[in-house]
Amino acid sequence: MVVSHIDSVKIIRNSAPYINAHRGKTFVLMFGGEAIEEANFANIIHDIALLSSLGVRLVLVHGARPQIDQRVALRKLETRFHQDIRITDKQTLECVKDAAGSLRSQVEALLTMGLANSPMHGSHIRVCSGNLVVAMPIGVRDGVDFEHTGVVRRIDVDGINDHLNDGSIVLLSPMGYSSTGEVFNLSHEDVATKAAIALKADKLILFSHQDGIVSKDGRLLRNLELDELYAMLNEPFYASEKQSLQAIISSLQAGISRCHTVSYRQDGALLQELFTRDGAGSLISQTSYEQLRQANIEDVGGILKLIKPLEENGILVKRSREHLEQEIEQFALIERDGMTIACAALYPYAEERMGELACVATHSDYRGGNRGERLLSAIKKQAREQGLDFIFVLTTVTAHWFQEQGFVEISLDELPTKKKQLYNFQRKSKVFKLAV
């Protein structure tokens, strides 16, 4: 696809706020051994290098399960698991060392080679790894000795931060070392989660074989809250993703505000997720990605930008900036990543115990997502708190939507006296009322 010069400029302008927001932040990126074998992995490396050049502090955590399985099979060793955890005896540990070491070298080489034929050609990317993960054995569980399978005991935060402060990318393998010189096989999910928490990372980003977290009916769930993941954790449908879901849950519980899952098969998914408003995968946050709140004076510009197209088409009555500034406390809005995408206002007529619902608007890119219903619910609650019995609305175009929400058409005579005096007979707006 050929992108025009104008479109290229728009892309850069739209991504600029995210470039500024991400600079200096710490991201932990987690990908399994399956991702490294994918043909698109070279493109992921290019995008990781680009993130580094933009000032993002990156910690990469790779897995090695399929590569370990291959080596175990080649050596005709017995593969043993208990509760989905690999039991690592001495011979299997050699397979783990071989696989993890090989993959680490592969990733380091890709980031060091200058990224030929890529936008980052000629860039110098420094990659650092080492004994940055201190581990301890799982020990004996249910009478089963896991031998050289371990869990993360401690992350060398100072060591990692020293490398990040020097502008290096830090690469962590699914292995840890004890103070007694032993080596342990770790799950890369455990390493990534503990690293993100210890470093107080701004994001944990997981690469998946799917576009993100997908519902049972195959829909990509673009925005999720922590509470929604608890139910998924015990559903058979998500059994294969249990470790990834647990990593996200643990990270969010520990204070990391946002986690992402993106596809390792889709070219550019990482950049699209980080530098566009709607992303490419799933965003999981502690609280809703879209915030419904009361407007304040700083929101005037965003509301004006939102309602301008509707005013130009005659759907809404025009409001000046001065008018909006005076009435801003009447407005509620939905904000998505700093952008106002929907708004509505309530003007009370206390004597008649009625309120006018006005200036209901949703950005054209975000219609159909029940945002209007969320705003209406908030306005109804606000009306009840103010002692109102009904809300009414005047509309020329969207009568059907209000009727779907339970509004019924009324005559002009039922409007509050002051509103009747201001009624514009040229617009011929229909009037609808709803009990709150």
UniProtKB/TrEMBL annotation:
GO MF assignments: L-glutamate N-acetyltransferase activity
Domain of life: Bacteria
Entries under CDD domains matching the protein: AAK_NAGS-ABP (cd04237), NAT_SF (cd04301)
Pathway info: Amino-acid biosynthesis; L-arginine biosynthesis; N(2)-acetyl-L-ornithine from L-glutamate: step 1/4
Other observations noted: In bacteria which possess the bifunctional enzyme ornithine acetyltransferase/N-acetylglutamate synthase (ArgJ), ArgA fulfills an anaplerotic role.
Family the UniProt entry places it in: Belongs to the acetyltransferase family. ArgA subfamily.
Protein name (record): Amino-acid acetyltransferase
Source organism (scientific name): Paraglaciecola arctica BSs20135
Lineage: Bacteria, Pseudomonadati, Pseudomonadota, Gammaproteobacteria, Alteromonadales
Gene name, Swiss-Prot/TrEMBL: argA
